[in-house]
Specification:
6 helices; single chain; globular; two-stranded antiparallel ribbon; 26-stranded parallel β-sheet; mainly beta
Length: 429
């Protein structure tokens, strides 16, 4: 790795010089979690539904705030129709019928909530829990890396209505803004779950901002292919991955949160970020783009009050997992309280070519048991030499969460921005 380390200054000096002093983690002059988020959704009384949503919606339809809607079974928006949802509207999902809302390819959802009037999808149970209902699925015609540039979502759905993928990276599936999705992720069969929000083949004209997924039994956000931008996303205490990217996704995600707990996980693994290009090599077309995730100003946090004890007890795993042939570019991101911070697939050779596609710059690693490792390999000297080089401006700390974040312990509206002046320009681990 000596030859690899020597080329660092050649290809990064100019790029990183401007980043050293920029703010890390989620940013904002004010706490942008105010007003629209809900960190105690089980304590909210959403009232009784007075309207039913069921079957197929094939004409333009509008849901209005004064009504409360019960989502029954798999509801499909088809025939290029637009489903418009007024700010402040509540959609209560029926747990007995595996309720899910599917926006099919060509159709559109306009769920344009307000900071003071968010749109809410939640469970109809009096005592709500993760996996009470299905989730929200949006299907588009942006590129994916599967052969034929097309695939379908199963999950017990009508696969004739769940095709996604195409050639239109700039396609528009509508707007999701100031939206909450609570207690989704119902188990389908075996090891399959719905997710809070599945975005498959979604194009970059779709607006996806200020979306909170809470207590999902599957992944909070799962992205299959597409070309999209995510801004001010919040994943709160899900059982599986907070953000999962696969099948050639080209995604830019910024100013977003993942809040994990040591006591909610899955036997299949649960991470803040899972980046893959495929599940099986034979299903993908390597002439197409493989997955690339560009992330800036994320905060990935385990909300334990006693991180060291939880790590020793085996309750905490890695925050980020990178699969073979996937590429990432992370900068100004906080990773706090994991074991370790990052794991690379054992199929990724540690060499110059691969490490130039897996970039961590101006990061803040806090209270992690180790930083970056290859899967099944405890010797990470080469990786530490690479990412620990001062030219990357990565920072290491051992602070507890209460001292690291502005208002970590607030159960109602926490503030996960870093405390001012908490970062020092140190490269010591």
């Amino acid at each position: 790795m000596k030859s690899v380390s020597q080329i660092l200054s050649i290809f990064l000096l100019v790029v990183l010089g401007a980043n050293a002093q920029q703010e890390k983690g989620i940013t904002g002059s004010n706490n942008w979690l105010n007003n629209w988020t809900e960190f105690r959704p089980n304590k909210v009384d959403y009232g009784e539904a007075n309207q039913i949503l069921t079957g197929i919606i094939s004409v333009n339809t509008k849901l209005i705030k004064k009504n409360k809607y019960i989502l029954q079974g798999n509801v499909y928006v088809t025939n290029n129709a637009t489903l418009t949802i007024e700010p402040g509207t509540t959609i209560i999902s029926d747990s007995q019928s595996n309720a899910a809302l599917i926006i099919t390819k060509g159709a559109t959802i306009i769920a344009d909530g307000l900071e003071t009037d968010p749109i809410v999808f939640t469970s109809n149970k009096s005592i709500k829990k993760a996996g009470d209902w299905g989730g929200l699925i949006i299907l588009g015609d942006a590129p994916i890396n599967k052969f034929g540039n097309s695939a379908s979502v199963n999950l017990g759905l009508d696969t004739s209505l769940t095709n996604y993928g195409g050639n239109n990276a700039e396609s528009n599936s509508g707007v999701l803004k100031f939206v909450r999705i609570e207690f989704a992720g119902k188990k389908v069969s075996g090891e399959e779950n719905f997710n809070g929000l599945l975005l498959a083949g979604v194009g970059n004209k779709t607006i996806l901002e200020n979306i909170m997924v809470s207590y999902a039994a599957g992944d909070s956000f799962e992205i299959f292919g597409g070309d999209l931008k995510l801004k001010k996303m919040v994943s709160f205490k899900c059982n599986r991955d907070d953000y999962k990217f696969n099948y050639g996704t080209q995604c830019k995600i910024s100013n977003s949160l993942a809040i994990r707990t040591s006591y909610l996980t899955s036997s299949l693994g649960a991470r803040c970020i899972n980046v893959a290009s495929y599940d099986k090599k034979e299903e993908v077309d390597f002439s197409k783009n493989q997955t690339l995730v560009t992330a800036s100003n994320l905060t990935l946090i385990n909300n334990s009050n006693n991180i060291e004890t939880d790590i020793q007890s085996g309750l905490i795993k890695e925050a980020i997992y990178i699969g073979e042939n996937a590429a990432i570019n992370f900068e100004k991101t906080v990773i706090s309280g994991f074991n370790p911070a990052v794991i690379l697939s054992d199929k990724i050779a540690v060499n110059q070519e691969n490490l130039q596609k897996i970039r961590f710059e101006a990061m803040y690693f806090n209270s992690c048991k180790g930083n970056i490792f290859t899967e099944f390999n405890e010797n990470n000297e080469d990786l530490e030499n690479w990412y620990g080089n001062s030219i990357f401006f990565n920072v290491y700390s051992k602070g507890n969460n209460a001292d690291t974040f502005i208002d970590f312990a607030n159960e109602k509206i926490p503030d996960y921005r870093l405390r001012i002046g908490n970062i020092t320009a140190s490269n010591d681990d």
